Description:
Number of helices: 9
Shape: elongated
Distance between the termini: 133 Å
Order of helices and strands: HHEEHHHHHHHEEE
Structural class: mainly alpha
Radius of gyration: 40 Å
Number of domains: 3
Strand order of the largest sheet: 3-4-5
Number of strands: 5
Largest sheet: 3 strands, antiparallel
Helix content: 55-70%
Amino acid sequence: MLRLLLTGFIMTALLAGCQNQHYLIMCKPQYSDRTCNLSDLDARGCSSAKATVRTCSFFVDSEVRRQLALKRGQTNSPASYLNSSAEVVRLGSNASGGGIVYVYLDSSTPKTYSQSAYDAKSLVNSRVSLLKFAMSRYVSDVVSGNQNTSEGEVLAAIASLQSLEAPLKRMIEDGENMFDFYSSQPSIDYEAMAREVVRKTNDRDPYLRAGAEMAITESKRYESNSPKVRVREAVEKFELLHTLAIAPYSEQFAELKKQASVQARVAAKSAEHRRAQHRAYEQEQRQGGGFDSGGGCSCAGGNVCYGPRGGRYCITAGGNKRYGI
Length: 325
C-alpha cells in the first residue's frame, strides 16, 4: 500500500515538474515587468507582451487538452468521428468552366460530410433550374402551336431529380448518426478548466492570466464552428435538398399541361380573329381600290380610298386626308 502511494506521489511530482518546465518555457514569467497594458495588447510597443500572452495561451490550452485526453482515455471514447466504412457515392455532375465537375457524397468525417452538403446543394439547384427551364420551354411551344413540342425534356429533368432521393436520404441518416456521436460526448467547462490551470500554475502571473483569457476566447470561437455545429448545419442542408428532390414535380407538370392547353386555345382564337380581320381588310381594299397615299385618292378627282381600319377618305388639294365621304 505504501509503495502504491509513493509511486502515485512520484508520478504526480514528475507531471507537475513537467508542467512547471513547460510553463517556464512558454510564458517566461515576467510579471514584475509591467511596461504594457495587457488589456490593450494591440497598442504601440506591446508586440513583445502580446507574443508572451499568445504563448501563454498555448500553454493553457495544451494543459486543458492534456487533462481532457486523460479523461477520455479513462472512458476509451474517441475524440472525433470517423466512419472508415462509409461508402463514397457519385451523386452526379455539374458543368463548370467549360468542363464537367463530379459531385461525390462522403460521410466518413465531419469535414467530408460538410463538403458533400455544399457540393450537393449546387447540383440539386442546377437540376431544379433545368427543370424550370424545360417546363417554360414546353409551355412556350404549346402556346405557339409548335408541332414538334415534346414532353421528353421535362420528364428527363424530373427523373434526374427523383434519382437523388435515395442517396440524399442516406446522407441525412449518416449525418444524424454523426450528430448523435458528438452529442454523446461529455460536456466540458473549458473556461473553468483554463482558470484552474492558472490557479495551480501561478495565479500571480498577469501574462498567464491574460493568456488564459485569450485561450478561453479562442475556445468559444472554435465552439461556434465546432464539428457538431457544422454537422448539424450540413444535416439541415441535406434535409432541404431531399425535400427538393421528392417534390411532386409530375403532378405539377400535369397541371401545367392543362394550363398550357387552355392558353394555346386562347392564343389560337386570337390568331384566327386577327387573320379574319386581315382577310376583311384585304377584301375592302380590293373592292374600294385599295389604300393609296398619292393622287389616286384625290378629292378633286372624285376618288375614294380606304384606310387600314376600313375608313373612307380622299386627299385634299392641301395634301390632307378628308374622312367621312
